[in-house]
Amino acid sequence: MHTKTATPPLLTVQNLSYQYGYSPALHDLSFSLQAGELSVLLGRNGAGKSTLLRCIAGWTQAAGGEIRVLGRLIHEHERWLRQQVVLIPDTPAFYEELTAWEHLQMVAQLHKLANWEETAVSLLTNFGLWSNRESFPFMFSRGMRYKLALCLALLRPPALLLLDEPLGPLDPLSANFLWGELLRYQTRGMGILLSSHQIPEGIQPNRYLIMEQGQMPLQGTPEALTPPEGTLSLEDLLQTAMNRFVAPSPDHD
């Protein structure tokens, strides 16, 4: 009789640490993300959110611990990882000699996408970039550059999408469209991890991950974190995390 093998989580982070020189940036982080889950990473500036996302994407090598995507250690499957995980940083980079449309064409060719043009037109139109399709990204505003990066990511949706402060550069119409797209892809099984201080009214993630000084003192579902006497606010979550945070004591010789 064959036993059914359990499907591993989409993302598993275990005892992750990272440091800049002698300064620790991430300390003993552990959490997981299932396929079809949308988790929001919260924390003050300098809490380590961007560093964590870069480690998960394989852009930065962690000092300790491990990161697995679908059960595979990311540092052992780097080429495969690029097919599964996409990170859009807060300041995306582009090829200066390629237009916006040529960037989409390049992604389609790299991934051997068929009939991609209709999706590309729809994405550019909905993000307000259709009239700029023949322009070069270096001519774009910060918000337009982030929208183009989103178009490139969603043209060939990955298994795990990482977004670093996606709502900051976006106008309200684009932000609402992005949330609609994220929820749509979430129902199709995409895992989404984003850092943000803004969440549209009426939308709740599956899980909050709250960081403070490179640690994660608080995480859980909105239901588990909502106080009995009131409603959940992002400010309350951050304050609760800061209240629970205990800084690691320095080592003494």
What does this 3D model show about the protein?
It is a single chain. The protein is globular. With 253 residues, the chain is of the alpha/beta class. It has a six-stranded mixed beta sheet with strand order 6-7-8-3-9-10, sandwiched between helices. Strands 2-1-4-5 form a four-stranded antiparallel beta sheet, with helices on one face. It is 32% helix and 24% strand. The protein contains eight helices and ten strands. The model has no long low-confidence stretch (mean pLDDT 87). 34% of the residues are buried. The chain has helices spanning 49-56, 78-84, 100-110, 117-126, 142-155, 172-187, 222-225, 234-244; strands at 11-20, 23-33, 38-43, 64-69, 72-73, 85-88, 160-164, 191-195, 207-212, 215-220. Strand 4 and strand 5 (72-73) form a beta hairpin. It has one domain (11-244): Rossmann fold (3-Layer(aba) Sandwich), CATH 3.40.50.300.
Write the topology of this structure.
Layout: E1 11-20, E2 23-33, E3 38-43, H1 49-56, E4 64-69, E5 72-73, H2 78-84, E6 85-88, H3 100-110, H4 117-126, H5 142-155, E7 160-164, H6 172-187, E8 191-195, E9 207-212, E10 215-220, H7 222-225, H8 234-244
Parallel strand pairs: 3-8, 3-9, 6-7, 7-8
Antiparallel strand pairs: 1-2, 1-4, 4-5, 9-10
